[in-house]
């Protein structure tokens, strides 16, 4: 049964605090030390897997500019048996650009290993507007969520048309 996981949300928050404060041992200890670790960073070439990720992760985060502010904007965590996942978004301000706020999103997957939640997958991203990526604004999911909040049902035949087609 899938359920909310305040425990995993706390683990995630502790990990992000450790990244911000440069606490290398904590950054490493939350990651699995097994072959199935997968790490996807925000950079184009940042895709790594395997046991070496755990031992290199503190140095990776230690090489980024100092984080002077980190503000959580979204956080949800769920678990089902021995697996859990977290979606976490935050605004980050780095020391070398104190007037610039960068939105960062993380999807983290955890496995329960010997009674301890260990991160087995991390995917970080910095959002890029769809207009820049695909050339137009995609609103289908946002429209559907808004319509559902207004009482739309899936089998509804009339009302607002939902589309993600490029403009004509």
Keywords:
single chain; 168 residues; Nuclear Transport Factor 2, Chain: A; 2 domains; 5 helices; 7 strands; globular
Describe the structure in your own words.
The protein is of the alpha+beta class and 168 residues long. It folds into two domains: 3-125, Nuclear Transport Factor 2, Chain: A (Roll); 130-168, no CATH class. 28% of the residues lie in helices and 33% in strands. The chain is built from five helices and seven strands. The chain has helices spanning 6-21, 24-29, 52-62, 130-133, 140-149; strands at residues 3-4, 38-40, 47-49, 67-80, 83-94, 102-113, 116-125. Strands 1-4-5-6-7-2-3 form a seven-stranded mixed beta sheet, with helices on one face. The radius of gyration is 19 Å and the shape is globular. The mean pLDDT is 88.
The level-1 CATH class of the largest domain: Alpha Beta
Give the ordered list of helices and strands.
EHHEEHEEEEHH
| Residue windows where pLDDT falls under 50 for at least 5 positions | none
Mean pLDDT: 88
The total number of structural domains is 2
Got a strand count?
7
What would you report as the Rg, rounded to the nearest angstrom?
A: 19 Å
What is the CATH T-level topology of the largest domain? Answer: Nuclear Transport Factor 2, Chain: A
